[in-house]
Design goal:
This protein has about 350 residues and is mostly helical. The protein contains 14 helices and no strands. It is globular and about 65 Å long. The protein starts with 7 loop residues before the first helix and ends with a helix.
Length: about 350
């Protein structure tokens, strides 16, 4: 007797179940890793505290020494690393998915450069406070994204045109940063360079609160547009044919992604390559066709926390988190360029 082939509908359903199970397993594994790294960040430092002491601090109890070190120093730093990494991951994977190109990260197409240029001008020229500098950086990132979108919008936004214009705008903004730095006083240079490198050293609850709110709101907007965002990978015409309001979906996704990246950059500085790395890494963990928003957010948070721990303990001196992610991201960029050229630019 010959075996009866399964109907196409059954094969499609089975494929969807496999992708869903793998995506759930990936999210579960990334979450466990994130919780473990978060615990390590609270336990280890110049003074190592027992896990039960850390838990008591988290529960609001007073523990001599640990209440200040863990509750006031390590906990805000770790929390800011998680929410900033999640914001960079969400923003990066949104642009990469929508523009169908793994190179279309916010730090490549100029959005982070807009925030950086504004922050440098705010510190060196305008002598703004930290809060005022953060607000200026957020506003500048939004304006930069709007300018890039308008310049690319000729008869509809072409993905390649937007990326190329974004790279050009980023180059101009980096020139502005270099010019301002050349004219900066020595006492401003230290503050500016610490900000430009990307660091969690100045983490505080005042920064974590607004950033966490931005992640919640931006993440909710992106989640509501997840179906349309996924279909945009196949092109605007195909997405429109499947009932996706293309212009509305793109506008909402761009706005949410820019807000996420802007708030994260304002809080920590432009931590290099996190937005660029999170999406491709999450795509390989989840597998083909799997949802990427939540895995990319978890991956971004993992990258920032892990890089911060490496910068603190792996070398004889302490390095800001942006230095570590930059060292890791540069070879990945080269590899991705080669692979993207061969595979047609897909995640």
């Amino acid at each position: 007797m010959t075996a009866v082939a399964a109907p196409p509908a059954a094969l499609v359903a089975a494929g969807r179940r496999r992708r869903l199970l793998r995506a759930r397993a990936a999210v579960g594994g990334l979450t466990v890793l994130l919780v473990v790294l978060f615990g390590v960040a609270l336990v280890f430092g110049d003074t190592v505290y027992r896990l039960d002491e850390v838990v008591r601090v988290l529960l609001g109890q007073t523990v001599p020494g640990a209440s200040f070190t863990v509750g006031q120093l390590r906990l805000p730093r770790a929390a800011e690393g998680v929410v900033a990494g999640a914001a960079f991951g969400l923003g990066g994977v949104t642009f990469q998915t929508m523009l169908r190109n793994p190179l279309a990260a916010p730090d490549v197409i100029g959005i982070s450069s807009g925030a950086s240029a504004a922050a440098v001008i705010g510190i060196v020229v305008l002598d703004l406070t930290a809060t005022e500098t953060s607000l200026l950086a957020v506003a500048a990132a939004l304006v930069t994204a709007g300018v890039i979108t308008l310049l690319a919008n000729r008869g509809g936004i072409a993905d390649t045109r937007l990326i190329l214009i974004g790279i050009g705008v980023a180059a101009m903004l980096e020139s502005v940063v270099s010019y301002v730095l050349l004219r900066a006083a020595n006492y401003d240079l230290q503050v500016v360079m610490r900000w430009l490198t990307g660091s969690l050293n100045n983490a505080s609850w005042d920064q974590v609160g607004p950033l966490a709110l931005a992640v919640l709101v931006g993440g909710a907007v992106l989640a509501s547009q997840s179906r349309g965002l996924g279909l945009l990978q196949h092109g605007n015409d195909q997405a429109a044919a499947l009932g996706v309001p293309v212009h509305r979906t793109r506008l909402l996704c761009i706005l949410a992604a820019v807000v996420l990246v802007a708030f994260a950059t304002a809080a920590t500085g432009p931590i290099a390559f996190v937005a660029f790395l999170a999406g491709p890494i999450a795509a390989r963990v989840v597998g083909p066709g799997g949802p990427l928003l939540l895995p990319a957010a978890l991956t971004g948070a993992l990258l920032v926390l892990a890089a911060d721990l490496v910068g603190e303990f792996a070398f004889g001196t302490r390095y800001p988190v942006g230095v570590i992610t930059g060292v890791l991201g540069a070879p990945f960029l080269l590899w991705l360029l080669v692979r993207s050229n061969r595979a047609g630019g897909s995640l």
